[in-house]
Design a protein that fits this description.
This is L-histidine N(Alpha)-methyltransferase. The protein is α/β, with parallel strands linked by helices. The chain contains ten helices and 13 strands. The strands form three sheets. It has a seven-stranded mixed sheet with strand order 4-3-2-5-6-13-12, sandwiched between helices. The chain has a four-stranded mixed sheet with strand order 1-11-8-7. Strand 3, helix 5 and strand 4 form a beta-alpha-beta unit. The radius of gyration is 20 Å and the shape is globular.
C-alpha cells in the first residue's frame, strides 16, 4: 500500500456498492485499494507507517530533510512566487518539513492541499494554523484534476504539484501514463511536479514492508471486509479469509490478496446480491509497483514532462523525482 495519506474516502453509498458489486462479480475478483480507508483503515495505516519494516515514510521524510533547500531553489525559480499543491495531503507529516523550511526562508508561496474529503482538509488546516500560523493555506476539496483545471484560470503563478508516498505505484504502466498525461494537461509549461517512487530493491525488504511480523498489514487489509459488513450489510466471516502478499522482482509488482479459506457464499444486503467463493479463491485488493530509473524516465517522456532531478535517501530505497511540464 502506497497511501502515505490519512485520507478517508467518502463516496455515495450507491457508488460504493456498485463498484464493490462489479469487483466481486468479476472473474477474477478484485476490489480497489481506495476502499481500505475508512476511519479504522486510516488508524491502522498510521500504525503501519510506524513499523520498523515499513521504510517508505521514513525514506521520503529523510529526502525532504536532506534536500529541502535544493527543492526550494527549483520550486521558486529565481524567487518567483508559486502555488504548492498536494494531492491527498493527509496529515502533512512529511510535507511540513518543506513548509517549515520555506517559511523560514521567506519564500513567496501558498499551500493548497487537494482532497476529496473535506474533513481531512479541515483537520490539516487546523494543525497548520497551530504549527505554522504564518502559512497561507487554502484547502481545495474535490477531484484532483477538477481542482487543477479551475486553477488554470488563476493568476498565472507557477504551480508545483506534490504526489508523494509512491501512490503512483497503485497504477499499472498504461494507467500511470494516462494519469500523468491528464496531470500534464492541467498544468502550464514550466509548472513542476514532485513524484515519489518506491524503487526496486532486495525482494525480502519489500515483502516484509507489506507483510509485517506483527500482523498490522494483515489487519489493515482484512478491515476492508469489516467495512463491507458495516456499511453494505455484507456477512463476510473474517475467520474464513486470510491476507496473502506476493512480490515479483521482475515486474516490480507487489500484490495483495484476501484468500477464501473455504467454499462459501457471501450476501450483501445493501444490493440484495450474493457472491460465491471457491476454496482458495483470491480477491485482489492492491498492486504496489516498484520502479527503476528507466521506467521513471519513460513515464515522464510519455506524459509530457522532463526529468529535472532525482533525489534519493542514503539507502537508495526511495526516489522523489522532480519533473517540469515541457
Amino acid at each position: 500500500m502506497e497511501k502515505e495519506l490519512n485520507e478517508e474516502v467518502l463516496l455515495p453509498t450507491d457508488t460504493f456498492a456498485s463498484e464493490i458489486d462489479a469487483g466481486l462479480s468479476a472473474n477474477p475478483k478484485a476490489i480497489s485499494s481506495r476502499y481500505f480507508y475508512d476511519a479504522e483503515g486510516d488508524r491502522l495505516f498510521q500504525k503501519i507507517m510506524q513499523l520498523d519494516e515499513y521504510y517508505l515514510s521514513r525514506a521520503e521524510y529523510a529526502i525532504f530533510k536532506e534536500h529541502k533547500e535544493l527543492l526550494l531553489q527549483y520550486f521558486a525559480d529565481q524567487r518567483t512566487a508559486f502555488h504548492l499543491m498536494e494531492f491527498g495531503a493527509g496529515d502533512g507529516w512529511k510535507t511540513k518539513v518543506l513548509l517549515r523550511h520555506f517559511i523560514e526562508q521567506h519564500a513567496k508561496f501558498d499551500y493548497r492541499p487537494i482532497d476529496i474529503s473535506g474533513n481531512v482538509l479541515q483537520e490539516l488546516e487546523s494543525s497548520l494554523k497551530t504549527e505554522l500560523p504564518s502559512l497561507q493555506v487554502q484547502g481545495m476539496e474535490g477531484e484532483y484534476f477538477e481542482v487543477l483545471n479551475q486553477m488554470q484560470k488563476t493568476d498565472g503563478q507557477r504551480k508545483v504539484v506534490l504526489f508523494l508516498g509512491s501512490n503512483i505505484g497503485n497504477f499499472r504502466q498504461h494507467q500511470a501514463i494516462s494519469f500523468l498525461s491528464s496531470l500534464r494537461a492541467s498544468l502550464n509549461q514550466g509548472d513542476m511536479v514532485l513524484i515519489g517512487f518506491d524503487m526496486k530493491k532486495d525482494p525480502h525488504v519489500i515483502r516484509n514492508a507489506y507483510d509485517d511480523a506483527s500482523g498490522v498489514t494483515r489487519d489493515f487489509n482484512m478491515n476492508l471486509l469489516k467495512r463491507l459488513n458495516i456499511e453494505l450489510g455484507a456477512n463476510f466471516d473474517l475467520t474464513k479469509f486470510k491476507h496473502y502478499q506476493s512480490y515479483d522482482p521482475q515486474s516490480g509488482e507487489c500484490r495483495s490478496y484476501l484468500i477464501s479459506l473455504a467454499e462459501q457464499e457471501v450476501t450483501m444486503q445493501a444490493i440484495g446480491v450474493s457472491y460465491y467463493f471457491k476454496k482458495w479463491e483470491p480477491i485482489h485488493v492492491e498492486i504496489s509497483r516498484k520502479f527503476d530509473f528507466e521506467t521513471i524516465n519513460e513515464l515522464a517522456a510519455s506524459s509530457g514532462f522532463g526529468v529535472v532531478k532525482n533525489l534519493q535517501d542514503t539507502d537508495e530505497y526511495f526516489t522523489d523525482s522532480l519533473w517540469v511540464a515541457t
